[in-house]
Amino acid sequence: MQFLKKWTVKESEKAAPQFVGYANLPNQVFRKAVKRGFDFTLMVVGQSGLGKSTLINSLFMSDIYEDSTYNGSGIRMPKTTQIRSSTVHVQEGGVHLELTVIDTPGFGDVVDNSQCWKPITEHVNSLFEEFLNAESRVIREAMEDRRVHVCLYFIAPTGHGLKQVDIEFMKELCEKVNVIPVIAKADTLTPEECSRFKKTIMNEIHENGIKIYQFPDSEGDEEEAAANKKLRDAIPFAVVGSNTVVEVSGKKVRGRLYPWGVAEVDNLSHCDFTTLRNMLVRTHMQDLKDVTDNVHYENYRCQKLAGFSGSLTPRQNTDPPPSRDPMAQFDVEKREHEMKMKKMEQEMEEVFEMKVQEKLQKLRDIEADLNRRKEQMSLALKQQQQELQTKRKQFDEDKRLFEEEHQRYMKELEDSMRSKDNKKHKKK
Ligand SMILES: Nc1nc2c(ncn2[C@@H]2O[C@H](COP(=O)(O)OP(=O)(O)OP(=O)(O)O)[C@@H](O)[C@H]2O)c(=O)[nH]1
Ligand SMILES: [Mg+2]
């Protein structure tokens, strides 16, 4: 009865719970991400002279402007006249960060500011377009992510509220990027004025339906939720920019020196500069990138692929990330490919048509040249003919005169001969 023998396994032979190894997955992801490095793009926007260039220089410690003459000794930053993108490679603890800062010229200098956001939104779109093209290539190389992940919008420290141009500008921008409003030159406001100004600004932002960057809810993590609430309360961040090092009670700090004291850039009781930098670099960089990818870029992609027909509804910050169904993805890529082929065909036809037109024009030129030369030659021929005719006439006239002369001479000769003969006869 060997069949019925119960299959028993000795306790010592029992397989110990095996270590498969997928617990190591986060480490693998981490190592891969660290190896690949990170891209982050920050843009500053706002009216002229609010300290945008100064702040981005202060934010990342290193001098972003390689060719700048600014040496941190309080020399005035040159006025920014065009959109300027600077990339610096930052490394900290073996983590590589490709940081791109986009400085934009300040607006508000001209009388008509009705379309002043256009160059900025066009620039943001062009970076999305670049990424979309790289993503839709058949062979995708390692793609650089140059999309704008955050935009610091500078508000003038008037103490009154937002200007109409600020409202319109932010309305346009928040559809495309994560907008974080900041109060510029906060050293010009007292703490009370500053907190009152913050409240006024936030009220106006809500009233006007401006969708600035929302800090995540972080459900389940109380510590993170508390930190995010603190950030939410601090927005718009009141900032002070300066790279001038001044001495405060024997300590060297970055700040703005006034006859009555120093406004310290890194002092949390003076301004929100450190809060802003920590938020950007330490705590929310990935979330800013995720929202850019899942919301703003997806909206751009949908609009682009739908041919701006409006058939696809824009995504909201709270929507789940888009499902990447392979068949749908394939259809999208196929459609893009067809569109590209059509465009190429059209371009080739245009080039062909242009070349044909060029050839025709060349032939027409040659024909005109030939006609001109033919006319010139026939004119010369006519002149020659006329000259010959005149010469011929002259010759005929000369010939006639000569013949007449000759006949007369012959006649005279004959007459003289005859008279001589007659004389001879007579003599005989
Ligand atoms: N009081 C005060 N002045 C500042 C601050 N930041 C910059 N400034 C000064 O403001 C002036 C303009 O600074 P910029 O950084 O050139 O301003 P911007 O916004 O880049 O100006 P545009 O390039 O014209 O748009 C300079 O004289 C700075 O020294 C600040 O936080 N507080
Ligand atoms: Mg500037």
TrEMBL record:
What keywords is this UniProt entry annotated with? Cell cycle, Cell division, Coiled coil, GTP-binding, Nucleotide-binding
Per UniProt, what is one Pfam family of this protein?
A: Septin
The residues covered by the Septin-type G domain are 36-307
- Please name the GO terms of the biological process aspect recorded for this protein, alphabetically: cell division
Principal subcellular localisation of the protein: other
Keyword Hydrolase set for record: no
The protein's matches in InterPro entries, at most eight in alphabetical order, are given as: G_SEPTIN_dom, P-loop_NTPase, Septin
Show the segment(s) annotated as Disordered: 308-328, 377-403
Any one Gene Ontology molecular-function term assigned to this protein's record: GTP binding
Could you tell me where the Basic and acidic residues compositional bias lies? Answer: 389-403
Please state where this protein is localized: Cleavage furrow
Q: Tell me which GO cellular component terms the UniProt record holds.
A: cleavage furrow; cytoskeleton
Report if keyword Flavoprotein is assigned. no
Q: Which family does it belong to?
A: Belongs to the TRAFAC class TrmE-Era-EngA-EngB-Septin-like GTPase superfamily. Septin GTPase family.
For this entry, the protein name equals: Septin
Q: What is the lineage of its organism?
A: Eukaryota, Metazoa, Porifera, Demospongiae, Heteroscleromorpha
